[in-house]
Amino acid sequence: MVPTPSNPQQIQQFLSSVLSQRGPSSVPYDESTKWLIRQHLLNLISSYPSLEPKTATFMHNDGRSVNLLQADGTIPMPFHGVTYNIPVIIWLLESYPRHPPCVYVNPTADMIIKRPHSHVTPSGLVSLPYLQNWVYPSSNLVDLVSELSAAFATDPPLYSRRRPQPPPSPTPPPYDSSLTRPPPSDQSFSRPFPPSPYGGRVQVQHVNHQQQSDDAAEVFKKNAINKLVEMVHGDLISMRRAREGEAEELLSLQGGLKRREEEINRGLKEMVEEKETLEQQLQVISMNTDILDSWVRENQGKTKNLVDLDVDTAFECVDTLSKQMLDCTALDLAIEDAIYSLDKSFQDGVVPFDQYLRNVRLLSREQFFHRATGSKVRAAQMEAQVATIAGRLHS
After folding, report:
1. What are the CB-based long-range contacts (under 8 Å, 24+) for 271-274?
2. Cα 224 from chain centroid?
3. Of 69, 134, 261, 343, which one has the greatest count of Cβ atoms within 10 A?
4. What is the C-alpha separation between 152 and 274, in angstroms, rounded?
């Protein structure tokens, strides 16, 4: 288990280091969700400082062990006007945050899990509707702890264990000085060095001088090793801080790239839809252009007879639908002019009000039928044009 310090900045550095770590000891979370996991834990620590993120080994039911993140500590539980602290462990499993975390009540040595309990099993596993109805990405750890606190306030999961009374200590026997003996003296330490034929005093001084030299060399060696260890430790701390800063920047960059990816995908989708709309409009314009070109070619030689032009015969209808469309349009515009004249006459006081309303109602009804007929004729003409263009393309 790797605990984290209580400093918020150090917690951020710890999470950045853990989530950016690679290798066998790295946490097995999806790269696309590591930034969200970090935000969930930082928001949780900000709202509930009694919880702290750690890494520990989690044992699955099938015997697999994996290194995971957890939030270990206590959550507040208001009960009868008093706030209690309930020890819990929130494990972030491999599939988090797409799936809910695993929550355990972690009783201390003087606590017992309440049996039976509506949300806590005898092993300490917590089951809540919030966990069962977990929705990614809206569900988070702060709301989960709030739900835990509310559920435990209704039905506390722990209660104190009764402590047994300690037995009375026996009275020690009276002290008897006759039962003690002084320890025997060690004669080997007081025994003098044996005499030397070359002078014992010179040999003892030589041995003492050699021991002092060996001690000085050993002290120098230890000091050098300690100095080297301090230098290496300082370099490691500097490198770790630099790597943590780089990991922090990379995680922030990853979040920004994720947002930009969503914006680009959304913009690309809008551009594809706009392209399809423009292609449809281009097809309609091409159809109208072909129709106008055909009309111009057919009527190009008729400009010489404009002197004796009859308005009623100026436009020749090529088929029945065109003639019907022309009649509906002419009648619609004529009725529009008649209604406008009635409005002017009524404003000038020439036409009475009841006669004005009767004529407008009759004209409006007739105009409605002409417009409805024109809409049907226009739809039929469009179908005929599409069929004609399709025949041209296939031919």
Report:
1. none
2. 51
3. 69
4. 54
pLDDT of the chain, 395 residues: tens digit per residue: 555 456 778 888 888 888 888 877 788 888 888 889 999 999 999 999 999 999 998 988 888 888 899 999 999 998 888 888 999 999 999 999 999 999 999 988 888 888 888 889 988 999 999 999 999 888 999 999 999 999 999 888 888 876 665 655 555 554 444 434 444 444 333 334 344 333 444 444 444 555 555 677 777 788 888 888 888 988 888 898 888 888 888 988 998 999 999 999 999 999 999 999 999 999 999 999 998 888 888 877 666 656 666 666 666 777 888 888 988 999 999 999 999 999 999 999 888 999 999 999 999 999 999 999 999 999 998 888 888 887 777 76
Complete edge-to-edge strand list for the sheet that includes strand 102-105: 51-59, 65-79, 82-92, 102-105
Angle at 143 between CA 4 and CA 253, to 5 degrees: 60
- Classify residue 183 by its DSSP letter: P
* 66 φψ region: left (φ > 0), alpha (ψ -120 to 50), beta (else): beta
Structural tokens at position 348: 């000038």
Size of the chain in residues: 395
Q: Quick one: 101 exposed, middle or buried, by C-beta within 10 A (0-12, 13-18, 19+)?
A: buried
What's the pTM? 0.44
Tokens at residue 389, please? 């263009």
How far is Cα 53 from Cα 14, in angstroms, rounded to an integer? Answer: 9
For residue 249, give both structure tokens.
């920047």
